[in-house]
Amino acid sequence: MNSTVNNTINNTSNNANNNANNNAPSAPTVQFADLGLAAPILRAIKDTGYDTPTPIQTKAIPLVLNGGDLLAGAQTGTGKTAGFTLPILQRLTQTRPTNIRAGRPRCLMLTPTRELAAQIKESVDTYSKYLELRSMVVFGGVNINPQINQLQRPIDILVATPGRLLDLHQQGEVDLLGIEILVLDEADRMLDMGFIHDIKKILALLPKSRQNLLFSATFSNEIKKLADRLLNQPDFIEVARRNTASEMVEQSVYRVRQGHKRDVLSHLINQHNWYQVLVFTRTKHGANRLAEKLVKDGISALAIHGNKSQSARTKALSEFKTGNTRVLVATDIAARGLDIDQLPQVVNFELPNIPEDYVHRIGRTGRAGASGGAISLVDQDELKYLKDIEKLIKRTIPTLTLDGFIPPTTIEPEPDRPARRGNHRSTATHNARNKPAQGQRRPQSQRKPNGQSR
């Protein structure tokens, strides 16, 4: 099966990209009613105000309805959640058994983050409102007992993050032997976050006969290996060229000293009157500090990252979506899966170490045909990261002149920086260079170990 999956990806990806581009003008002629969906589902879709499917929905829905395995290449913002949710609802309704047991779901949707899990559950609720299907979501960071209580009733669809799902299974609260359909959403991010061992454990708990759907924005060798293990002669679709930034996003760079970045960000927000800005930082601590600085500047801001409680993260996202908070400062993992309609502006306060993360970041804007902007504040020490990003997306990001900004007389201390790739110093050398003189306090930036923290 390995050669089948790899050949499928290699032989059809270019055709899929060309077809997506060539067929883009004719996509509006296809309606949801043309895709074979049942009347209750079409009614729910109509309630949302949509009538025209996105390219990924047009391609995925018929294939999922056919019951075969699917490998789909799609970045966030393409409508992929509805692309698998809608046909799954139909299949579960058509084949619903009469003896559904408590705690034994029929469909499992695995996602990498709490936020994405909650949003998929919301999508399931939206489109199943006229169906007699039950669904629930489980993720970590919250009390497990309410989730255990919900599992005491029959469940059709279970949306879950890997860790909490395994916890519930180990406690005997969930039975995965009834799974008819498995969805791995944002599989590349799940592997990046170290979930591969959890995924393997979960796969071992599932029945061998089932439909498998794998969605990923990129296709690394690790994803190909996972697809080989998971999928059986899958159909393959891809609606966007791999590892590329959205054409709808206007990208630009400002060359800024690290110590000036916070003041520059406040200046840009006020100058352009941005009302909804998602800002990416490299570390959790940096996200907190930046949000606090923006608030001092009179700009409403909240931080979202892994150290925040689930209730705090949910509240921050809600405040941002409703417009009560102008700026949401996030780390990469915390922002993965955020679904915000018409988000106009993304700012890279610091460039990511991994070029692919840049693509995921700016994919928060320019979604579903809307335009958006992505600005990166780049210090001299980040030029290597910028070159790697430009190499990946195969384009040069224009550098703009910062107009009207007057640098402050004092420069804020620079945050901890992760070690550059390939830059390894011995511990003795590092300690010798960073040891403070007798009677002198260690600088703030050296009081915590360097490294990326999400």
UniProtKB/TrEMBL annotation:
Region (Disordered): 1-27, 403-454
Membrane-crossing segments per the record: none
Entry keyword Ribonucleoprotein: no
Motif range (Q motif): 30-58
Residue span(s) of domain Helicase C-terminal: 248-414
Ranges for domain Helicase ATP-binding: 61-237
Keywords, comma-separated and alphabetical: ATP-binding, Cytoplasm, Helicase, Hydrolase, Nucleotide-binding
Assigned EC number: 3.6.4.13
GO cellular component terms listed in the entry, alphabetical order: cytosol
Highest taxon of the lineage: Bacteria
Alphabetical GO biological process terms: response to temperature stimulus; ribosome assembly
Composition skew (Polar residues), residue ranges: 441-454
DEAD-box RNA helicase Q domain ranges (all copies): 30-58
GO molecular function, one term: ATP binding
Catalytic activity annotation: ATP + H2O = ADP + phosphate + H(+)
Presence of keyword ATP-binding: yes
InterPro entries: DEAD/DEAH_box_helicase_dom (IPR011545), DEAD/DEAH_RhlB (IPR044742), DEAD_box_RNA_helicase (IPR050079), Helicase_ATP-bd (IPR014001), Helicase_C-like (IPR001650), P-loop_NTPase (IPR027417), RNA-helicase_DEAD-box_CS (IPR000629), RNA_helicase_DEAD_Q_motif (IPR014014)
Cited Pfam families: DEAD, Helicase_C
Family indicated by similarity: Belongs to the DEAD box helicase family.
The protein's name in its UniProt record: DEAD-box ATP-dependent RNA helicase RhpA
Organism classification: Bacteria, Pseudomonadati, Pseudomonadota, Gammaproteobacteria, Cardiobacteriales
